[in-house]
Amino acid sequence: MEHDVPTKALLAALEYQIALGADEAIGLAPVDRLARAAASEQPAPEPRPRHRAGPVTAVAPVPLPPVVDSADPVGEARALAGAATSLAALNDALAGFEHCELKRGARSLVFADGNPGARVMIIGEAPGRDEDIEGRPFVGRAGQLLDRMFAAIGLDRLSDLPESALYITNILPWRPPQNRDPEPEEIAMLKPFVERHVALVAPRLLVLMGNISCQAMLGRRGITRLRGQWTEALGLPVLPMFHPAYLLRNPAAKREAWADLLELKARLRKDAEGR
Ligand code: URA
């Protein structure tokens, strides 16, 4: 038939794309990126994050040379992140960071959610499909479990009170294709932004969700051993915990997660008493 060849070719092209991992539409219309690059158009503006302007004190820029060496993505990340003196500026700096390939495959820059005045800052791994669509961290099934877990100890990302609030971000602000683990180079070039993010929020303590976050912030994996043990990073107390996505797959581990939540609650109480 007349249509056989084009249909077959189209199906083959589609199968090839699926095999490459392009199994999901990220826009309503296709984008010819080659034509766009040729016309040297600016990329579409990133959606603004939903995080609220909270009581974040101004933080002086880190005195780093503003040199930007495109062969040195980590150095450029440090310079850009260090120059950001507010969360909005850090968000913009990330949006302008062009070295991470993940950005090109993602629909949204997922910066943060919650109250930047919170005493507790949660650092997850990376946005998944739902987060990529909504532009906010932890909004899918794992995020709903995370909300329930922290609600059980009186913490809520929507709270306006620092003592009952949460602030949530991820190591990676862009969704990796097919939710694959990040490459070490990707973590290395995005870590300066996470470090600056922590400095700007200045929480009392950090909670690291899962192995990727522990790898990035502590240089260690093995969440089964790390979870529930207080450690330190960036001068702050850090509590590693099982990732809620892991808990969805392994409900029996919720017992340990509950113990960790109680440990966190006790630490927050002591911290409040000591102030
Ligand atoms: N898992 C994460 O680590 N972060 C998210 O934002 C969503 C799922």
Descriptive notes:
Helix content is 44%, strand content 9%. A six-stranded mixed β-sheet has the order 1-3-2-4-6-5, with helices on both faces. By secondary structure, the protein is α/β, with parallel strands linked by helices. Helix 3 (73-83) runs parallel beside helix 8 (184-201). The chain has a single domain, classed as Uracil-DNA Glycosylase, subunit E (3-Layer(aba) Sandwich), CATH 3.40.470. Bound molecules: uracil. Residues 124-128, 131, 137-138, 142-143, 170, 209, 245 line the site of uracil. Uracil binds at residues 124-128, 131, 137-138, 142-143, 170, 209, 245.
Order of helices and strands: HHHHHEEHHEHEHHEEHH
CATH structural architecture: 3-Layer(aba) Sandwich
CATH topology: Uracil-DNA Glycosylase, subunit E
Strand sequence of the main sheet, in spatial order? 1-3-2-4-6-5
Based on CA atoms alone, the radius of gyration comes out at 20 Å
Uncertain regions: pLDDT < 50 for 5+ in a row? Answer: 39-49, 53-57, 64-68
Which small molecules are bound? uracil
Tell me the distance between the termini. 80 Å
Q: How many discrete domains?
A: 1
Mean pLDDT: 86
Number of helices, counting only DSSP H or I runs of 4 residues or more: 12
Global outline: globular
Write a compact overview of the structure shown.
By secondary structure, this protein is α/β, with parallel strands linked by helices.
Write the layout of secondary structure elements.
Layout: H1 4-20, H2 33-38, H3 73-83, H4 87-95, H5 102-105, E1 113-114, E2 120-124, H6 129-134, H7 141-151, E3 166-170, H8 184-201, E4 205-209, H9 210-218, H10 223-226, E5 231-233, E6 236-241, H11 244-249, H12 254-273
Parallel strand pairs: 2-3, 2-4, 4-6
Antiparallel strand pairs: 1-3, 5-6
Helix pairs in contact: 3-4, 3-8
The structure holds uracil.
Uracil is lined by residues 124-128, 131, 137-138, 142-143, 170, 209, 245.
